[in-house]
């Protein structure tokens, strides 16, 4: 490879890198715009077609940015007070549906949204994106480890190649030396002619004992691990009758958990929402990122009075009593602590293993927030005394107030 | 000698059958083929195949076990706003069964009623309940109830039945509605509307436990056919002549509450009422009496008459010290005494009225101006109805929740006469004795599915609201009547609301009344003339004319079974009778003297003949039963459709006589042994406490003199001298209970032994029913039991010395024993003997003083039960749930509908594990959580256990003794410090349950 060629190559590389980094900067606005758009607008607007509100394709070509900002921040002001003719006509055209006001949007945020819309406008409208649910019964494995696997495979291939090369090398050298055996010293001859009796090694007692011990050990261990995992359904992510996405609803749209899971701050069960709660929004919102099909199935279930049979993801055995409000309200624990990053899950997955050991561990480690709560007064006082006596250390944990006693969960 | 004979093993050998020859020389038969169809010979399954199959089977099973089954979660389509799965809702309603009344709260979970609690807002029942009220929630889910309208046993649509019945009613010239007492004013208005449409209708009320005699007596004495209101709390001396007012008479929940108020002691109240009982069978009232005298059933009138003579300054014809003492006490407490009699004889009741009048009790303890309506039945009218029915002058009968073929003495006559009617309709809940004879069965809703109201007494109103939709194809009887009467709006809920707005509320809010369940209207007191029109001397003559004759019998009601309206309820069938502790049967209770004289043993089956009729029952030897008399419980022998064992016990109603008012007292009874034997399933056969200080008691006089004298205070001898038990401990350090220490104080003075707590606990904690056979094997599962002890007349020779003392004699209860009731449940010992012996630590102690039981950890060694000194642990010998074949009686766990009553917060225990009282830990946890969320300390009373909430006498007080303001702390440490004791204190197990010793108001 000539020096010149190398120069051209590195020059190209630099150029690509620079271009890349530039596009990264340009995309920052679009990404923010996309996030804001999907989080706030998609319930009523699409880019290429009308929904509850008009299609927003090429919006910047139709209206100027000042108007757009004004309208987004308070559309009713534009329509009813300023009586802007374009806005009034728009209002009438879409059945006098009031657009939610977004007074908190900053200028650059609105610009980002518009930039995103304009960027999308040039793309051809995508057909309904088919959801790709995992095959039935197959737990969806977390793919964050994908890179590591690749590296591992590459390493193994490299090592094998090295080993093969070494063996070939060795054979060649040995053959070469054998040809000149007569010129070699006796000691060297011995080394060259050295044979390796595999059978002798295999028949050796120590070898047999070590191997059988290893095998038995591995067997016992896999049995033990297997037995421990019986009934543990971590990463269970069954296919649901309607592919409801928590990523969309809780993540992008930021709907509060308690809005749908009505019992989560009140009682034992969080409760899967009744279809009437879905219909609060979906009587208007008929189309989502995945198209119309799934929402139509929901509406159909509601209209035909056919309850939806969701598949239960988190299953505690009947012998253990669990109360959501004890943890969410009294304990002040966030949902994600046990359920994982639910706002990023398109398909809900059981994030924790829900074993007793897992519960107990948390009860041992979690501090109890008893401040300004008269219920904990006696307990806190007692804890302070114990700390003074040196019997306990640190903050009052759940275990100190009986959080690991049998009858807290089993009755 | 040569034997020429041929021996052959069968015809096959003789004929050389090829099949025989094939097998003849192979010693062992082939293995049983595992495959269903093994082909040709030699292809039978061998050991390898078997092992393969076994291996595959195990593999498949373990693989299947690894894969969790897919569980569905199906939410509401349209979630009602007020229903939140996992959170209980409570609705105020009213338990009404004939004339029995109780204001209640119904706990519902996900729209299913699962538990009944008393309604504290009611001035009548004041939060009390009874076993029957508690058990009624299970009757709702009874799959033996008729599930659709029936015509001659075949299903018919409601519309068709309506059309046919309306047509038949239009053509009927004489219509009768027969019912038990109707407490509901709205229902009466419905009947009035029905009468308007069909003017020939006559409404007849009767009561299976008739109080016709009292009603007729009051008609004669005061011109009004009503029951008075009684107030036992104001009475210092109470005399009961055969009236079991604590168990079954008129309104026991209300009376128990009042009675207990007069019996409670505390720091400032050192007075108690005194109860005298003159009765033949040992009733709940008699067991709680300070003085009890057994009298023959026929002598009840004479006792009343003698008492009247004594209180009016005359002399008694009966020589009885107790009667004399009673009259002295009555006279000393004029205006603060009360005499009641259970007799259904109008003459006896006239005399009782006179006694109360002489004592000036009217206006204080007896209030005729505030009548109560618990019993309205008229025996004379019922007799007239039967006569008319027999004379065929009636052509249509509607039985409104009445079963007279079973529970009226003339049932057999009604049964015969019912056939020829043009129209017969029954509203009963199932195919029973009466409804299976009726052409139409249009089943009524259960009361938990119904709208309705009740007026237990004047000025006291109560609402019934549905807590669930009709679970079967039933329809409310009132609605049926409205439809048949051609009403424009047939919704009975609307009818009740408009009736209340028009007649009851006088402007008050209906919704408020519905929320409270009760409403008290200002009493517009109309004066009843108290001038007696009753002829005392005639009554006297009639009473004197009653002669004792031969062996006598008393037909009585059991606390659990009553007149049998809930005979299909397995909780009540397995509920141990408070006195005999018998379950699943009725029996002839005979005194020990009669049994030994006639060679009868417990369980000997005898034939009882009276009034020309006879029944066969086993014998139970009953201490306290009046000599030369026997008693038989009513309410048994009912046909219970839908159960494998359709009849339990024998119907005794047939023995009663109904000439004039119904008489439950029988004379000239003959008893003949049949030679058969039937074991009675009793839960407690050891009747006395053998001189052990389990129950500590004394008399009021003694107690006032020296409050500590009656207390057993054990001392332990140690090398350092005598010490109190708690000073001698195995344990080096005591575990701290920094936050709560849950304890209970049980007042033996207030506990009347009614057993409401037993059923309440059963409903709350998913306690299974095990059936008669298992009870006989002593495997009943109740977490709380009421131990009933008789006192013995025998004396031990030497105090505190076991050997050489007279302990055998202690086993014999006396003829008229004193009785003690003691609720016994897990004592939640702080030094629990059960905990230390569990090899897997399945039972441990909590930092709140609870003895915890982790079922999923228990593997059933039963060491704990062995080591429990109180014998309160229960072992699951079988799988009682999903096991209908073996335990069909356990309907709350074995039928699709019955399972709806289970408390979802409490685990259903499986076979092979131990269980026991958890002190309703689910309620404690719920209450604590509520306090945490509200950021307050747990308020006393905010958490209460199922047994304590059910108690009509507030004998059980539960709370946190770390809170010095709590009632349980005050009871134990302040108000009744001298009486508080732990059972078996000498063991130093340090129970969290304390008892307050029993104080009797008598002379030792």
Q: What's the gist of this structure?
A:
In chain A, 54% of the residues lie in helices and 0% in strands. Chain A contains 18 helices and one strand.
Low-confidence stretches of chain A: 9-26, 127-145
- Whole-number radius of gyration of chain A? 33 Å
Number of domains of chain A: 4
Q: What is the N-to-C succession of helices and strands of chain A? A: HHHHHHHHHHHHHHEHHHH
Quantity of strands of chain B, as a count: 42
Mean pLDDT of chain A: 82
Strand content of chain A: under 5%
**Can you give the helix content of chain B as a percent range?**
25-40%
Shape of chain A: extended
Description:
The complex is a heterodimer of chains A (411) and B (1004). Chain A is mainly alpha-helical and 411 residues long. Chain A has four domains: 25-122, Orthogonal Bundle (Cytochrome Bc1 Complex, Chain D, domain 2), CATH 1.10.760; 151-219, no CATH class; 236-354, no CATH class; 366-411, no CATH class. Chain A contains 18 helices and one strand. The longest helix of chain A is centred in the N-terminal third of the chain and has 38 residues, at 3-40. Residues 9-26 and 127-145 of chain A have low confidence and may be disordered. Chain B has 1004 residues and is an alpha/beta fold. The model of chain B is unreliable at 29-42 (pLDDT under 50). The longest helix of chain B has 20 residues, at 47-66. In chain B, a hairpin with a 2-residue loop joins strand 2 (89-97) and strand 3. In chain B, helix 6 (185-197) packs parallel to helix 16 (477-484). In chain B, the strands form 13 sheets. In chain B, strands 6-5-17-16-15-7-8 form a seven-stranded mixed beta sheet, sandwiched between helices. Helix content of chain B is 27%, strand content 20%. Among the domains of chain B are: 11-66, no CATH class; 212-372, 3-Layer(aba) Sandwich (Dimethylsulfoxide Reductase, domain 2), CATH 3.40.228.10; 549-682, Barwin-like endoglucanases; 697-1000, 2-Layer Sandwich (Alpha-Beta Plaits). Chains A and B meet through helix 13, strand 1, helix 15 and helix 18 of A and strand 1 and helix 29 of B.
């Amino acid at each position: 490879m000539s020096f010149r060629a190398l120069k051209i190559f590195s020059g190209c590389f630099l150029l690509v890198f620079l271009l890349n980094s530039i596009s990264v900067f340009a995309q920052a606005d679009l990404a923010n715009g996309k996030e804001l758009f999907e989080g706030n607008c998609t319930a009523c607007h699409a880019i290429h077609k009308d929904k509850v509100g008009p299609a927003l394709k090429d919006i910047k070509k139709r209206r100027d940015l000042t108007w757009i900002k004004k309208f987004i921040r308070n559309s009713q002001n534009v329509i009813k007070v300023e009586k802007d003719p374009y806005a009034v006509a728009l209002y009438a055209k879409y059945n006098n549906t009031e657009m939610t006001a977004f007074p908190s949007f900053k200028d650059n945020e609105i610009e980002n949204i518009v930039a995103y819309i304009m960027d999308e406008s040039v793309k051809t409208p995508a057909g309904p994106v088919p959801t790709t649910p995992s095959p039935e019964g197959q737990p969806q494995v977390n793919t964050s480890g994908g890179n590591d696997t690749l590296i591992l495979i590459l390493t193994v291939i490299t090592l094998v190649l090295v080993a093969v090369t070494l063996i070939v090398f060795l054979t060649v050298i040995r053959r070469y030396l054998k040809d000149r055996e007569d010129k070699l010293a006796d000691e060297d001859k011995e080394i060259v002619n050295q044979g390796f009796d595999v059978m002798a090694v295999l028949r050796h007692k120590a070898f047999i004992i070590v191997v059988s011990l290893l095998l038995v050990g591995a067997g016992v261990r896999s049995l033990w691990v297997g037995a421990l995992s019986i009934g543990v359904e971590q990463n269970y992510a069954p296919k649901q009758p309607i592919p409801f996405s928590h990523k969309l609803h809780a993540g992008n749209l930021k709907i509060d958990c308690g809005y749908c899971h009505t019992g989560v701050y009140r009682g034992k069960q969080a409760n899967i929402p009744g279809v009437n709660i879905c219909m609060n929004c979906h009587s208007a919102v008929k189309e989502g990122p995945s198209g119309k099909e799934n929402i139509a199935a929901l509406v159909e279930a509601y209209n035909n009075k056919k309850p939806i049979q969701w598949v239960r993801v988190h299953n505690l055995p009947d012998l253990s009593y669990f109360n959501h409000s004890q943890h969410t309200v009294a304990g002040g624990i966030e949902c994600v602590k046990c359920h994982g990053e639910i706002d990023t899950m398109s398909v809900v997955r059981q994030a924790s293993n829900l074993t007793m050991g897992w519960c107990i561990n948390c009860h041992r480690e979690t501090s109890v927030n008893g401040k300004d709560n008269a219920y904990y007064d006696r307990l806190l006082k007692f804890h302070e005394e114990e700390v003074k006596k040196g019997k306990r250390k640190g903050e009052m944990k759940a275990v100190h107030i009986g959080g690991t006693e049998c009858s807290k969960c089993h009755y | 000698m040569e034997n020429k004979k041929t021996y052959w093993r069968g015809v096959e050998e003789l004929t050389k059958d090829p099949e025989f020859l094939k097998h003849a020389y192979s010693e062992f038969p082939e293995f049983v083929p595992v495959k269903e169809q093994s082909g040709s010979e030699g292809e039978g399954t061998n050991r390898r195949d078997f092992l393969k199959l076994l291996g595959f089977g195990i593999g498949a099973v373990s693989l299947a076990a690894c894969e969790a089954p897919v569980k569905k979660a199906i939410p509401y389509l349209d979630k009602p706003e007020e229903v939140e799965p996992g959170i209980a809702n409570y609705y105020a309603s009213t338990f009404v069964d004939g004339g029995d009344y109780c204001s209640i709260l119904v706990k519902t979970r996900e729209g299913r009623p699962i538990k009944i609690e008393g309604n504290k807002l009611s001035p009548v029942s004041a939060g009390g309940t009874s076993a029957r009220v508690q058990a009624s929630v299970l009757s709702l889910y009874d799959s033996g109830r008729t599930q659709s309208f029936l015509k001659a046993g075949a299903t018919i649509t409601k519309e068709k039945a309506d059309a046919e019945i309306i047509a038949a009613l239009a053509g009927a010239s004489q219509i009768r509605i027969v019912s038990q007492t109707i407490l509901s004013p709205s229902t009466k208005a419905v009947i009035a509307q029905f009468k308007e449409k069909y003017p020939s209708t006559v409404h007849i009320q009767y009561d299976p436990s008739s109080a016709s005699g009292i009603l007729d007596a009051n008609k004669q004495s005061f011109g009004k056919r009503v029951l008075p209101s009684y107030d036992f709390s104001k009475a210092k001396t109470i005399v009961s002549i055969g009236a079991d007012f604590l168990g079954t008479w008129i309104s026991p929940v209300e009376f128990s509450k009042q009675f207990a108020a007069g019996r409670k002691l505390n720091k400032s109240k050192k007075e108690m009422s005194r109860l005298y009982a003159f009765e033949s069978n040992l009733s709940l009232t008699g067991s709680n009496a300070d003085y009890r005298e057994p009298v023959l059933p026929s002598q009840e009138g004479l006792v009343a008459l003698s008492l009247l003579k004594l209180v009016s300054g005359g002399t008694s014809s009966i020589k009885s010290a107790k009667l004399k003492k009673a009259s002295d006490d009555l006279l000393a407490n004029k205006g603060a005494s009360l005499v009641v009699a259970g007799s259904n004889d109008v003459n006896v009741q006239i005399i009782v009225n006179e006694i109360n009048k002489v004592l000036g009790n009217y206006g204080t303890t007896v209030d005729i101006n505030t009548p109560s309506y618990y019993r309205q039945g008229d025996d004379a009218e019922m007799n007239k109805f039967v006569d008319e029915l027999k004379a065929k002058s009636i052509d249509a009968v509607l039985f409104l929740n009445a079963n007279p073929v079973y529970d009226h003495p003339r049932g057999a006559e009604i049964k015969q006469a019912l056939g020829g009617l043009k129209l017969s309709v029954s509203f009963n809940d199932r195919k029973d004795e009466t409804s299976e004879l009726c052409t139409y069965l249009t089943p009524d809703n259960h009361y938990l599915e119904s709208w309705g109201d009740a007026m237990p007494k004047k000025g006291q109103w109560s609402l019934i609201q549905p807590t669930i939709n009709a679970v079967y194809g039933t329809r409310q009887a009132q609605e049926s009547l409205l439809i048949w009467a051609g009403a424009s709006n047939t919704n009975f809920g609307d009818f009740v609301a408009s009736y209340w707005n028009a007649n009851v509320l006088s402007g008050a809010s209906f919704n408020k009344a519905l929320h409270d369940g009760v409403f008290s209207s200002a009493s517009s007191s109309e004066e009843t003339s108290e001038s007696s029109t009753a002829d005392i001397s005639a009554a006297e003559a009639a009473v004197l004319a009653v002669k004792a004759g031969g062996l006598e019998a008393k037909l009585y009601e059991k606390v659990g079974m009553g007149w049998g309206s809930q005979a299909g309820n397995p909780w009540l069938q397995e509920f141990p009778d408070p006195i005999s502790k018998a379950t699943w049967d009725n029996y002839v209770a005979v005194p020990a003297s009669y049994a030994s004289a006639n060679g009868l043993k417990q369980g000997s089956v005898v034939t009882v003949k009276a009034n020309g009729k006879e029944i066969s029952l086993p014998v139970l030897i009953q201490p306290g039963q009046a000599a030369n008399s026997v008693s038989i419980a009513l309410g048994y022998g009912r046909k219970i459709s839908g159960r494998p064992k359709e009849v339990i016990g024998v119907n005794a109603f047939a023995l009663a006589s109904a000439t004039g008012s119904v008489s439950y007292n029988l004379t000239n009874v003959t008893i003949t042994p049949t030679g058969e034997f039937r074991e009675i399933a009793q839960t407690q056969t050891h009747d006395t406490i053998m001189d052990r200080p389990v129950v500590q008691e004394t008399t009021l006089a003694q107690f006032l003199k020296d409050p500590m004298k009656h207390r057993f205070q054990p001392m332990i001898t140690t090398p350092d001298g005598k010490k109190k038990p708690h000073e001698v401990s195995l344990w080096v350090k005591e575990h701290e209970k920094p936050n709560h220490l849950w304890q209970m104080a049980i007042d033996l003075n207030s506990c009347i032994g009614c057993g409401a707590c037993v059923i309440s606990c059963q409903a709350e904690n998913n306690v299974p029913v095990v059936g008669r056979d298992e009870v006989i094997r002593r495997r009943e599962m109740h977490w709380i039991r009421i131990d009933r002890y008789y006192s013995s007349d025998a004396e031990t020779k030497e105090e505190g010395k076991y050997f050489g003392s007279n302990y055998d004699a202690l086993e014999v209860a006396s003829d008229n024993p004193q009785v003690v009731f003691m609720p016994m449940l897990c004592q939640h010992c702080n030094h629990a003997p059960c905990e230390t012996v569990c090899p897997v630590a399945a039972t441990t102690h909590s930092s709140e003083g609870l003895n915890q039981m982790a079922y999923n950890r228990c593997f059933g060694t039963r060491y704990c039960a062995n080591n429990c000194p109180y014998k309160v642990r229960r072992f699951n010998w079988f799988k009682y749930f999903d096991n209908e074949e073996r335990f069909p009686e356990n309907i709350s766990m074995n039928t699709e509908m019955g399972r709806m009553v289970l408390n979802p917060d409490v685990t259903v225990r499986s076979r092979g594990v131990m269980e026991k009282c958890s002190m309703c830990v689910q309620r404690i946890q719920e209450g604590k959580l509520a306090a945490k969320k509200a950021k307050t300390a747990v308020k006393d009373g905010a958490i209460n256990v199922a047994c304590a909430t059910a108690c009509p006498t507030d004998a059980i007080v539960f709370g946190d003794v770390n809170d010095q303001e709590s009632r349980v702390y005050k009871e134990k440490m302040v108000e009744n410090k001298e009486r508080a004791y732990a059972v078996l204190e000498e063991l130093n197990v340090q129970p969290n349950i304390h008892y307050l010793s029993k104080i009797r108001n008598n002379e030792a």
